[in-house]
Amino acid sequence: GIQVEQSPPDLILQEGANSTLRCNFSDSVNNLQWFHQNPWGQLINLFYIPSGTKQNGRLSATTVATERYSLLYISSSQTTDSGVYFCAVEGYSGGGADGLTFGKGTHLIIQP
Amino acid sequence: KAGVTQTPRYLIKTRGQQVTLSCSPISGHRSVSWYQQTPGQGLQFLFEYFSETQRNKGNFPGRFSGRQFSNSRSEMNVSTLELGDSALYLCASSSLGTSRYTGELFFGEGSRLTVL
Predict the structure, then answer these.
(1) Cis check: omega of the bond before A8, within 30 degrees of 0
(2) Whole-number Cα distances in Å, A49 to A21, A54, A78, B51
(3) DSSP letters spanning chain A
(4) Which residue from A6, A60, A67, B27 lies 20 to 30 Å from A26 (Cα-Cα)?
C-alpha cells in the first residue's frame, strides 16, 4: 500500500514563530488531507488538498503531486496551535479499498 | 450544521466482553468510515459504509464488524474484546457518493475504549 512519511516528528517553537511541516508519499494520490488532533482526540479537518495551494488564515498548504509531497505552513504560531498534525492520503491503486493512510504525525509544541 | 456525533465518548470493558459504538454523520452525508487509533499502530482504517453496504474493509479480524442504517447512522461492534483493542475509535463522514474513493472526511470526537 501507499506509504506516508511526515517530518519532523517533533517540533518545539516559541509563540509567534513560523513553521513548515512536510508530508512525503510514495504513490499518486486522489486525496490528501491535513488534520490537527486536539487534546481531546478529535481530528480537525484543516485542508483537503490533493494538489495545489490553499490558505486559511494563518495556515496554508501546498501539495506538489508530481513530486509526491505536501507542506503545511503555520505562521505566527499561537499556543492553541499545539497538538499533533497528521497528513493522510489515498492512492489510486487501491480503488478506494484502503481508506485513508495516515502518517505518524508531527507533534508541535508552542511555548508562550 | 451539526458535526459528526459519536457515543459513548468513554467506556471501560473487560476482556471477553463485546462493545457497540455509535456514529451519526453530518446531515446529508451518506458515507461513514471508522478508524482505530493506538499509540503503537497509529491511525488505521477499519471499514467504510455507503447506503447500508460495507464497501471497503481494512486489515482487521472478523471480531470487528459494523453496519449502517437507512438514516446513514452507523454502529461498529467489537466482540470478544482483547487488551489490544484499547484504543480511540474515530468515525468520519463524507459527502462523496457512488465513488469508492474516500472523499473529504470530517471526523467526530471519538470513543475512547479501555479494555481491562
Answers:
(1) yes
(2) 14, 7, 23, 26
(3) ---EEEE-SEEEEETT--EEEEEEESS-EEEEEEEEE-TTS-EEEEEE-SSEEEEETTEEEEEEGGGTEEEEEE-S--GGG-EEEEEEEEESTTTTTT-PEE---EEEEEE-
(4) A60
Cis previous bond, A50, omega within 30: no
- Chain A residues touching B45 at Cβ < 8 A: 98-101
* pLDDT tens sequence across A80-101: 999 999 999 998 876 667 799 9
Give the distance from residue A75's alpha carbon to the nearest chain B alpha carbon, in angstroms. 24
* A3 Cβ under 8 Å from any chain B Cβ: no
Nearest CA in chain A to B104: A48
> Could you tell me if B80 and A8 are in contact, meaning their C-beta atoms sit under 8 angstroms apart?
no
Name the phi and psi angles at B84, rounded to 5.
Answer: -70, -5
Q: Do the Cβ atoms of A96 and B106 come within 8 Å?
A: no
User: Which of B1, B35, B64, B102 is the best mutation test for A, with the most CBs of A within 10 A?
Assistant: B102
Q: Convert the pLDDT of each residue in A72-81 to its tens digit.
A: 999 999 999 9
- The answer to whether the CB of B101 falls within 8 A of the CB of A90 is yes
The rounded distance, in Å, linking the Cα atoms of B13 and B92 is 24
Q: How far is A33 from chain B (nearest CA, A)?
A: 7
The HSE-up count of residue A23 (CA atoms within 13 Å, CB side) is 32
